[in-house]
C-alpha cells in the first residue's frame, strides 16, 4: 500500500538498578533473536546503546531510536524496571508505544536469575496513567522471548494504524446529499485524533475535472482499466470520462495533501453528480481504494476514516457497504439452511452501487446504476463495478462520532457466504454470528448509520486495540455478543 507508513519498532530494554542488568541484556537479545527468526528484521530495531536504568539513559535511548528512524516503541521490562525512566521514555517518544515484560525462565534460577517483571508491569501501568500516556499493553503482557516476539508482531498493525492516523488528511467534496443526515457527524473528534480535514465544494471538483479534459495521461489510464475489466468492460464508451476523473482526484490529492503524508477521500456521487459529470464515480472509487487511497461514497467522512483504518490494519483493499437488506426466506431455505450453521437472522446482504475493488469480487462487469436510472437517463448513470463479493472471512466495523462529539465504534467478525446474490451492485451475502441481536442492540440502539467498512479477513482483535488506543471508551466499542451474554438494552425475557 503506497498510502501507509512502514512501521519500524525500536525495542528498548529497561532495568531496575538493584536488579542484574545482565538479565535485561540477555533477555533483550533472546527476544530480538526470536523475532528475527520468526518474522524477519524489517519491522524492528534493537537499541544497543544502553539498558535504561536512569533518566540519562532514557535520553540516550530516545536519541538512538530516533536516529535509527523508529516510528514506534516497544519498552521491554527485562526485569522489574525503573518506573520513572521507562514511562518518561514513552512520554517523550512521538509515536505509538507498547509495554511488554519478561517471564522467568527456570525454576532452577530463581535466586540471582529472577527478574520480577511480572511485578514491574504493574508499576509501569500505574505510572503511565499518572502521566496520561497512551500505550498498548497486550492481553497478557508477560512472556518468554518467543511469546513477547509474537506480542510485538501483533503490535505492528496497531502501530501502523495509529501512526497513519496522526499524519492523515481527509479530503471531502460537497455536503452530504439531501435526506442523508445518517452520514452527517461532527468533525471535532477528527481534530482530537490529530487528523486534518479539507472540505471542498463539489463545484471546485467539477472545475478541476473540466481542467483535465484532454489530459495526455488519459489514454494510459483507459488502457489500465481495459486490462483490469477484461470481458467485464461492458461500457467502454464511459472509460475516457472515468479516467479523466481518476486523474482529477489523484492530482487533487498531491496538490492538497499539504504537510500530511496520508490521504483518504469522502466523495460526492449524487444527486447532481451524474447529470453534471455525466457518469457515476463508483469504479474510480474502487480503483483508488485498491491502491491504498480509500474513497467513501456519499461524503461519508467517518466511513472514509473507517476504511483508512481498515486498510492500515489489513494492508489490503477494503470496501464500504450499506448494511442493506435481509436475505429472503426462500433463499435462506434453498442456499444456506443445512449447509451453513447460521440462522436467517444471522444473515444479511451488504451492498453498494459498485465501489468494491475488482480483486474482492468473484466476477465483475461495468454497468449502470440501476437505482439512479429509475429517474435519470441510463447513460449518465454508467460507471458502477458490479459483481458478487468473493466468499471468505470478513470484519465489519465502523468508527463514528455521536452528535455530542464522542467517539464510538463497533467490530463484528463473520464471513461472506458462497451464495449467489441474484441482485445488482457490489454485493454479497454476509453472515455474522448473532447478527440479529447485534443489529438491534448495537447498530440501532447506538444510532449508527447504514454504512459499514469491510476488511477482508478477521481483524477484530487488532481493530479493537486500535480503537482503545486512540481513545474510544471500551464501553463504546460494540461487538456481536454471543448467546447468553446480554446487551444492556436487551430484554432478558425475550
UniProtKB/TrEMBL annotation:
Keywords: Carbohydrate metabolism, Isomerase
GO molecular function: isomerase activity
Keyword Disulfide bond belongs to the record: no
Ranges for domain L-fucose isomerase C-terminal: 351-475
Source domain of life: Bacteria
Pfam families: Fucose_iso_C
Transmembrane intervals: none
PANTHER family in alphabetical order: FUCOSE ISOMERASE, L-FUCOSE ISOMERASE C-TERMINAL DOMAIN-CONTAINING PROTEIN
Protein name (record): Fucose isomerase
Amino acid at each position: 500500500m503506497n498510502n501507509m507508513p512502514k512501521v519500524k519498532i525500536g525495542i528498548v530494554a529497561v532495568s531496575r538498578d538493584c536488579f542484574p542488568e545482565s538479565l535485561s541484556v540477555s533477555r533483550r537479545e533472546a527476544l530480538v533473536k526470536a523475532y528475527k527468526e520468526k518474522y524477519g528484521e524489517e519491522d524492528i530495531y534493537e537499541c544497543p546503546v544502553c539498558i535504561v536504568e536512569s533518566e540519562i539513559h532514557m535520553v540516550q535511548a530516545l536519541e538512538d531510536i530516533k536516529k535509527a528512524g523508529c516510528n514506534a516503541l516497544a519498552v521491554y521490562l527485562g526485569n522489574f524496571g525503573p518506573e520513572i525512566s521507562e514511562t518518561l521514555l514513552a512520554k517523550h517518544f512521538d509515536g505509538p508505544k507498547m509495554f511488554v515484560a519478561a517471564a522467568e525462565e527456570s525454576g532452577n534460577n530463581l535466586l540471582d536469575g529472577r527478574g520480577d517483571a511480572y511485578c514491574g508491569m504493574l508499576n509501569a501501568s500505574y505510572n503511565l496513567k499518572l502521566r496520561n500516556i497512551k500505550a498498548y499493553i497486550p492481553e497478557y503482557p508477560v512472556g518468554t522471548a518467543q511469546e513477547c516476539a509474537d506480542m510485538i508482531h501483533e503490535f505492528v498493525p496497531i502501530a501502523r494504524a495509529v501512526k497513519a492516523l496522526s499524519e492523515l488528511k481527509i479530503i471531502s467534496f460537497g455536503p452530504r446529499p439531501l435526506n442523508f443526515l445518517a452520514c452527517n457527524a461532527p468533525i471535532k473528534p477528527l481534530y482530537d485524533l490529530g487528523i486534518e480535514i479539507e472540505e471542498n465544494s463539489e463545484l471546485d471538483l467539477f472545475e478541476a475535472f473540466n481542467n483535465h479534459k484532454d489530459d495526455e495521461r488519459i489514454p494510459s489510464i483507459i488502457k489500465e482499466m481495459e486490462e483490469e475489466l477484461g470481458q467485464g468492460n461492458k461500457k467502454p464508451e464511459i472509460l475516457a470520462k472515468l479516467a479523466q476523473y481518476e486523474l482529477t482526484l489523484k492530482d487533487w490529492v498531491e496538490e492538497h495533501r499539504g504537510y500530511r503524508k496520508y490521504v483518504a477521500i469522502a466523495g460526492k456521487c449524487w444527486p447532481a453528480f451524474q447529470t453534471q459529470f455525466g457518469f457515476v464515480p463508483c469504479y474510480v472509487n474502487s480503483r483508488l481504494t485498491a491502491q491504498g487511497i480509500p474513497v467513501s461514497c456519499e461524503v461519508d467522512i467517518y466511513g472514509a476514516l473507517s476504511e483508512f483504518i481498515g486498510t492500515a490494519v489489513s494492508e489490503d483493499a477494503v470496501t464500504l457497504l450499506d448494511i442493506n437488506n435481509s436475505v429472503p426466506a426462500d433463499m435462506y431455505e434453498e442456499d444456506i439452511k443445512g449447509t451453513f450453521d447460521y440462522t436467517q437472522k444471522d444473515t444479511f446482504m451488504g451492498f453498494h452501487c459498485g465501489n468494491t475493488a475488482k480483486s474482492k469480487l468473484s466476477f465483475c462487469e461495468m454497468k449502470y446504476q440501476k437505482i439512479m436510472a429509475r429517474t435519470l437517463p441510463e447513460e449518465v448513470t454508467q460507471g458502477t463495478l458490479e459483481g458478487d463479493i468473493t466468499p471468505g472471512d470478513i470484519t465489519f466495523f465502523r468508527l463514528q462520532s455521536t452528535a455530542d462529539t464522542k467517539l464510538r465504534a463497533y467490530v463484528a467478525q463473520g464471513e461472506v457466504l458462497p451464495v449467489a446474490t441474484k441482485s445488482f451492485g457490489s454485493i454479497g451475502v454476509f453472515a455474522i454470528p448473532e447478527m440479529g441481536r447485534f443489529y438491534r442492540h448495537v447498530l440501532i440502539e447506538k444510532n449508527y448509520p447504514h454504512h459499514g467498512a469491510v476488511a477482508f479477513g478477521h481483524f477484530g482483535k487488532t481493530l479493537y486495540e486500535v480503537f482503545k488506543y486512540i481513545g474510544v471508551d471500551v464501553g463504546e466499542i460494540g461487538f456481536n455478543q454471543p448467546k447468553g451474554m446480554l446487551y444492556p438494552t436487551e430484554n432478558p425475557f425475550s
